[in-house]
Amino acid sequence: MLLTYYFWIKAVKSGSIMWSASCALAYFYMVSSWGGYVFLINLIPLHVLALMFTGHFSHRVYVAYSTVYILGTILSMQIPFVGFQPVQSSEHMLAFGTFGLCQLFSFIEYVKSKLTKTQFDTLFSFALVTVGFAAAGAGVVLWASGKIAPWTGRFYALLDPSYAKNHIPIIASVSEHQPTAWSSFFFDFELLVFMFPVGIYYCFKELTDANIFIIMYGMTSIYFAGVMVRLMLVLAPVMCVLSGIGISSVLTTYMRNLDVNQLKKSVTSTAQSSTRARRNDDSSSYPRKNEIAFGVVCMMTFFLMTYVFHCTWVTSEAYSSPSIVLSARSGDGSRYIFDDFREAYWWLRYNTDEDAKVMSWWDYGYQITAMANRTILVDNNTWNNTHISRVGQAMSSTEDKAYEIMRELDVDYVLVIFGGLIGYSSDDINKFLWMVRIGGSTEKGAHIKESDYFTPQGEFRVDKSGSPTLLNCLMYKLSYYRFGETYTEQDKPPGYDRTRSVEIGNKNFELEKLEEAYTTEHWLVRI
Amino acid sequence: MESFYQLPFNFVQCPNLKLKKPSWIRKPSNTTVLFGLLVSYFLVTAGVIYDIIVEPPSVGSTTDEYGHHKPVAFMPWRINGQYIMEGLAAAFMFTLGGLGFILLDQTNKPNMPRLNRVLMILCSFIFILVAYGATKIFIRIKMPSYLS
């Protein structure tokens, strides 16, 4: 992405076809790796439009954009996943429209230079009427007949954040898709959140083509990062670039004001206790220029040093632990390791049939496929919403109904994650409401209503006052089987769930249709 | 070309209107756009989108041992969670810091009365230091294990 933008800026500045072609190649690399290429193919036309509005459109931009659009689109259509989307889907229409507008703009400039004023005016109004009508008519026909596909769900959710929450629970359930709170911004950026507006201000001071691009990139990415936490990684490079512009401009300005000889002389003169203080020429309007410049430089150095400390601390605490092996600090400060995930996957690998099928929630699909080497029903890349919904229905129904669904899907093993023994909070009971929502979102699961799983007061509880539907569903039974006799904490009754901090409501039940195959050491994974 | 152009006017008569682009529509100046961008930066970093989707309370509340409800300003321990007021307060600090630096740059203009310059420098230092310090305190309140 950054390579594409770099080449784009180079192409816009120089107007050469070589840089534009390199930009198209880098764009091809981006298309083949991530669906975020849609951001690129919309930002570059937006930049061209902004240049048109501010009067910066020149032949260089024309050459750059035409080359990039044509080569880039043809290359991107080589990827099977993209296929014919660049001419059919709404996400690519802006690029197409800007391409047409570029041609029209340049053609008008060319014709204007060749004709007299009256001739040009007549031709212009004629062309506007005919071509404009024809284009508008064609656009309306294509859109109404459905040939131009509307914005797909995951991109539409970026423009209208409440769409996913109301219509597509699967997109809304991913924790990375949640909107961003202020602490995520500060945690990831610290000093940069202060320097971002400064960088934008310095870009506005001198509006070149490249500066306009950076401003647009910055503002669009900060909006998208605010909509979805995961898109923080699109914001990160431009945050660094703009903060760098800001910091270096501040430092350049103030280093110019700094005159080290002046300071040295004032130090030696005070040592000799001279009463004559040396002043600058414009001391009348700018007192103590040196000292202030010195102060600013020191302050910036201090901020940059604390930034380094912050970054190393955050990386070591938050971004360095593998999520498959958990660790906790025991009372005396030593580290205790929970290796239950791998223990369960290895058990699956060596103690089940080669063609056994495992049903679990889609979060664990990739891990089971890779480590246990068994077939699973749904994983992180499953696009089939109905299939995931079927799994959700199985987890939310009673044991008999779930057994029918599992027979239909030909399932041999069911895997659930249970954190009640050790207090692990990302287990399946905490994710259960999402299973209910997704299960109830398709036709076959219409009988599953989220409100059935809450108490009459609207709380989600697993103790005696919990809703009977919840206390008898498959997920509850598989998680809490034999848990009713287990002691988890001193002076608490047996069956005390440490994650929810309550004693469970339905103990001492037997499983009729399933049997327990394996439970790991800390009861994290149950098969 | 003339006959083609004249074709619709055989059926339709053009109304006698005098339309002009209103004079108050002008290209906005740099400062206006910068101000607009700063406002949107404030709103986005305040987590306004988070507030709209997740609808957290304005301040949280906890009950102490006597049964009194005490307000909680910062949602503890969750990096991606906030109450509305804490988001707005933090975003105010971010923008204040940015404004401090912008003001610091403005102090280098050549022709400025001495009082203005001194006040501006003082203001910008206060803004920057207060914003930085306050934000550090906020994150320490929210996550007691920060930087330890």
From TrEMBL, chain A:
It is an enzyme of class 2 (transferase). GO terms for cellular component: endoplasmic reticulum membrane. The lineage of its organism: Eukaryota, Metazoa, Spiralia, Gnathifera, Rotifera. Residues 357-414 form the STT3/PglB/AglB core domain. The keyword Transferase applies. Keywords: Endoplasmic reticulum, Glycoprotein, Glycosyltransferase, Magnesium, Manganese, Membrane, Metal-binding, Transferase, Transmembrane, Transmembrane helix. Pathway: Protein modification; protein glycosylation. InterPro entries: Oligo_trans_STT3, STT3-PglB_core, STT3_N. It comes from Adineta ricciae. Gene3D superfamilies: 3.40.50.12610. This is Dolichyl-diphosphooligosaccharide--protein glycosyltransferase subunit STT3A. One of its GO terms (molecular function) is metal ion binding.
UniProtKB/TrEMBL annotation, chain B:
GO terms for cellular component: oligosaccharyltransferase complex. Keywords: Membrane, Transmembrane, Transmembrane helix. The keyword Nucleus does not apply. It is found in: Membrane. Its main location: membrane. Pfam families: OST3_OST6. The chain crosses the membrane at residues 33-53, 83-104, 116-139. InterPro entries: OligosaccharylTrfase_OST3/OST6 (IPR021149), OSTC (IPR042416). It is a multi-pass membrane protein. Component of the oligosaccharyltransferase (OST) complex. Specific component of the STT3A-containing form of the oligosaccharyl transferase (OST) complex that catalyzes the initial transfer of a defined glycan (Glc(3)Man(9)GlcNAc(2) in eukaryotes) from the lipid carrier dolichol-pyrophosphate to an asparagine residue within an Asn-X-Ser/Thr consensus motif in nascent polypeptide chains, the first step in protein N-glycosylation. N-glycosylation occurs cotranslationally and the complex associates with the Sec61 complex at the channel-forming translocon complex that mediates protein translocation across the endoplasmic reticulum (ER). Belongs to the OSTC family. This is Oligosaccharyltransferase complex subunit. The lineage of its organism: Eukaryota, Metazoa, Spiralia, Gnathifera, Rotifera.
